[in-house]
Amino acid sequence: MSVRQSPFLVMLHAAKSAGSWLRSDSQRIDSTGPIESERRDDLPDSGSRFEYLSVPAMSLPTIPAEQFAEVKRGWDYVRHATLGLAVQRVLRDDVPGAMAEAGVWRGDCARFLHMFAPERDLYLFDTFEGFPAPTDGEADMRFKDTGLDVVRSVVGWSEKIKIRKGIFPDTAQGLKDCRFSLVSLDLDTYEGILCGWEFFYPRLSPGGYIFVHDYNAMEYDRGPFRATTEFLRDKPEGIVEIPDQWGSALIRKARR
Question: Is the pTM for the entire model greater than 0.70?
């Protein structure tokens, strides 16, 4: 008599057969094969420690090989690989416009954007000093371990990188007529993300992408999720969620 296996067991057996194993400790896999599997102790406690199933990297990526090797060595494979695929689509479809990141911190994500398309202008919007001091309430002291010198050392430097230091969207002055092909919004708060949508969406070329970091994160009263959902309520684009470390989401602007 045959026994019907549960979908989970079938999936786990297939994963093992493909060489992906459930691991309980951090370990680096050969860079030509699966990406790193990780055990995290710094996440909210749900009764047991989080374990991750390592997954193989793309077998036939459209990202150039040298760039893809950097992606596999990065700290968030899913996020950076998805950005890389989007940039390649922008280049193949000849979507016009600069790229931008609002909320840069130390430049880790901006480094990949510049690496993927060094010929494109890349606008970087940030205080480069962490969160601005609040008018009331307690200051958020995170993300202060940065600065222009740090960002330049991480991203590299070229005339294509346009630094906009200060509070966004004030730092977008003079860019009223600028067009964008890909934007990463990593401003954390409801107000910041909403400002990002309001400024960049009308200037995003058809076929261009907007990524929102922390879309599914629980911090900041789910500000990125609320701002994105509210802004896109009457827009034709649907939200695509991706399973990177902090729950990003993206849209590709409709070609009317």
Answer: yes
